[in-house]
Write a structure and sequence with these properties.
Elements lengths: L2 H27 L4 H20 L13 H24 L2 H8 L2 H13 L5 H18 L8 H23 L5 H23 L5 H27 L2 H4 L6 H12 L6 H22 L24 H7 L4 H4 L4
Helix pairs in contact: 1-3, 1-9, 1-11, 2-3, 2-8, 2-9, 3-7, 3-8, 4-7, 4-11, 4-12, 5-6, 5-7, 5-12, 6-12, 8-13, 9-13
Length: 324
């Protein structure tokens, strides 16, 4: 089996686990506020984070080198966590994914002011086409837009901001800083807000939240293994397999059916995202590429992202580009 095939299998398995993780969030969202779900998922993630961070032997402190960028990324991650968890709770799974898949398009736009990226005509056309796909999914004027739709859009924007900041400061900041600050912020902010929304949780629901944390970290570790094995141009598009799982899970567990507009819109968004990712794979490897080479999930600050971990162990895909 080739390394790319191995990496693709790891990635597909990772995103299947992420999709299952989102099913649990949707189930819990019927009873509990996303604030409570985020708080306990972060709480259960701390031991897993501690074990992961024990691998970081780099000497140094936890004070950010770029405090304002870290603060902005932390805020974006906190907003994304609550927004994404709420969207999964109230919207059909396939519709939520279709909106979140707009993130690479938004990253391309954000790369202009944050990274100084020059986006050429063909990428602009891909972004415009992709965003038109979002409008097809939302169908403004023909269907009621809810708070859930707004939450999904907010999660897509917040996750894009957090991701592009990693590209901006990732070479300087320690991975432990980029992981720990959003997690602690989620814990403190959600903990403070918990007094207004808390509902007592039976042991089986606490166990389900623990599974959410375990699934996120397992899926995160698998996507890291995928990037360690294969090329980013092969791994990154595998995230779109989640729409298949969303359709299957939505039908089996929530009596959801994917309507034509969502299917068409998701197809447009995915095609545009694939075009941008594949265009990047043929770029010159500059530091201002518009889509992160370690593209995984929307940034929620509740688990380790692939990029910072690979930098921690010295295996970031950028460093492998010339050896492939």
């Amino acid at each position: 089996m080739s390394l790319n095939a191995k990496g693709a299998i790891f990635a597909l398995l990772s995103f299947a686990i992420f999709a299952t993780h989102d099913v649990f969030i949707k189930i819990l969202g019927d009873t509990y506020s996303p604030i409570q779900i985020v708080f306990f998922s972060v709480l259960f993630s701390f031991p897993l984070a501690a074990m992961t961070l024990m691998r970081d032997s780099t000497p140094g402190h936890l004070v950010p080198i770029h405090p304002w960028w870290v603060a902005l990324r932390t805020i974006a991650s906190v907003i994304t966590a609550v927004s994404a968890f709420y969207a999964f709770s109230v919207l059909p799974l396939a519709q939520t994914y279709a909106i979140l898949f707009a993130a690479p398009l938004l990253i391309t736009i954000l790369a202009i002011p944050i990274l100084g990226e020059k986006v050429r005509l063909r990428r602009w056309l891909a972004v415009i086409v992709g965003l038109s796909g979002v409008m097809v999914v939302l169908r403004p004027g023909t269907t009621d837009l809810t708070l859930g739709h707004a939450a999904a859009l907010t999660a897509a924007v917040g996750g894009s901001v957090a991701s592009i900041i990693v590209r901006r400061i990732g070479a300087d900041e320690r991975p432990i800083v980029m992981l720990l600050y959003p997690m602690v912020a989620n814990f403190v902010i959600m903990g403070g807000a918990l007094v207004f929304v808390y509902v007592p949780m039976p042991i089986e629901h606490l166990g389900l939240v623990a599974l959410v944390a375990a699934f996120a970290w397992t899926a995160g570790r698998l996507i890291i293994s995928a990037y360690q094995s294969g090329e980013a141009a092969i791994i990154a598009p595998m995230q779109y397999s989640q729409i298949i799982w969303a359709t299957i899970y939505g039908t089996l567990f929530f009596d959801e059916s994917i309507d034509r507009a969502t299917l068409v819109g998701a197809g447009i968004i995915i095609a545009s995202g694939l075009y941008i990712v594949l265009r990047e794979s043929r770029s010159d490897g500059a530091s201002t590429t518009p889509v992160l080479r370690t593209r995984s999930r929307h940034e929620t600050g509740t688990y380790m992202r692939a990029g910072p971990f690979l930098r921690m162990v010295g295996l970031h895909p950028d460093s492998k580009k010339d050896t492939k």
